[in-house]
Amino acid sequence: MDRCAMAYQYHKDGFNCAQSVAAACADLAGRTPEEVLAGLGGFGGGIGGSHEEVCGAVSGGIFILGLLRPFTQAEDAGAKRAVYAQAKEFRRRFTEIFSLSRCGDLLRARPGVSEKTPAAQRLGLTTHCDIMIVTAVELLEALLAEESA
After folding, report:
1. What tens-digit pLDDT sequence spans the chain (149 residues)?
2. I need a surface site. Which of 97, 112, 135, 138 has the fewest CB within 10 A?
3. What are the C-alpha distances in Å from 136 to residues 58, 64, 74, 102, 130?
4. Residue 31 phi, psi (nearest 5)
5. What is the Cα–Cα distance from 4 to 144, expressed in whole angstroms?
6. Three-class DSSP labels, 40-79
7. d(CA 137, CA 117)
8. pTM of the prediction?
9. CA 99: distance to chain centroid?
């Protein structure tokens, strides 16, 4: 099963948007889905279900980027710049597609499937969060593929 379909299945099974994205992409960071699910339990619904903060699908993608670009030494300004740059680019790409990145704003706007969301089209998705989730996975895979090319 591809990562987009896996993320959709995680969400269908009851995991939040952040968990669904990160669990489907855990292998990219050399982790198991179980290792990332616990850390993102409170990140769904725009942080704790408030719908006021960044979309959980974006949070899940940035979590994976953080595992791939660890910033673990306070004096390592290069590592900090690297992970911030990737996180910023990931969020920019998400916002480029949906015009927004805050959970509540996205819920009000309800952007649907378009030519900019091919994975959602391929999977026949119509539910708001599912579209955000699979698109975040798709963007994360593309960003990482570009980096390794």
Report:
1. 699 999 999 999 999 999 999 999 999 999 999 999 999 999 999 999 999 999 999 999 999 999 999 999 999 999 999 999 999 999 999 999 999 999 999 999 999 999 999 999 999 999 999 999 999 999 999 999 998 88
2. 112
3. 6, 11, 29, 13, 10
4. -120, 165
5. 15
6. HCCCCCCCCCCCCCECHHHHHHHHHHHHHCCCCCCCCHHH
7. 11
8. 0.96
9. 16
- How far is the C-alpha of 62 from the C-alpha of 83, rounded, in Å? 9
Q: How distant, in Å, are the alpha carbons of 39, 54, 147 from that of 17?
A: 13, 11, 25
For the chain, what is the total number of helices (H) and then of strands (E)?
8, 0
- Residue 121 has which token pair? 């089209």
CA–CA gap between residue 111 and residue 107 (Å, rounded): 8
Q: Which residues contact 135 (CB under 8 A, 6 or more apart)?
A: 57, 94, 97, 98, 116, 117, 119, 120
Q: How far apart are CA 125 and CA 41, in angstroms?
A: 24
State the sign of the Cα–Cα–Cα–Cα dihedral 129, 131, 133, 135.
negative
DSSP symbol at 13: T
Rg over alpha carbons for the chain, rounded to the nearest Å, is: 14
